[in-house]
Every structure is written in C-alpha cells, then in structure tokens.
Amino acid sequence: WIAFAEPFDQLAGRDVLILHGTEDRWTDPDASRTYGDAAAGIGARVSYIAIEGGKHSMLQQPGFWHRVSAQYVASILPGLAPAAQSGTGPTANLVQDAVRGDLRATVSPA
What we know:
3 strands; about 110 residues
C-alpha cells in the first residue's frame, strides 16, 4: 500500500510491484493504483495487483502475499531471474506477467 503523496521520481527506470487488498480501509487501493500509474508515467516498470478481499494488514492469505512478492523480487534480481522465471503454476504465471510491467490485475488467492 502507498500512503498519500508518496514521492515517485526515484522510481524512474525501476521495477515496481504494488500489491493492495481490495478491502483495505486504512489506505485507498485506488491511491496505490494512481501512484503506480504516475510512476509508470516517468518510466518505471509498474505492475499493480489487487488482492480480492485482502485487507490492510495482509494477514489473510499471508502465504500468497509472500509468494508473489518474493518471486517477483527473485525474478528481477540479476543471477536469480532465470531460475525464478522458470517456475510454473498460477503464482509463477502471475509474477512472470508482473515482471514484464504494465500488469493491472485483480486476483483471488483462494
């Protein structure tokens, strides 16, 4: 999640994954998506994944949150990327789409 008015200029040319629960009542999922769009506008490779039913604390489906974020990071790190991108299954496919940037998806981690 992204707090209101977070700076984004430092993200130009970088890979960014934003995960945000659709049921978050502390921070606005639309604000996170807007932030991602602004960062993409200055050259960041941004993907935004809305987690259906997810709340602010990410305590529901913690394994899903962890798998997606960890696989994403491994997929963009030099040396780890080939092994991380060779995974299979729904989470691996989602991450592979996210690594390419410009992914806007809503997923149900059930």
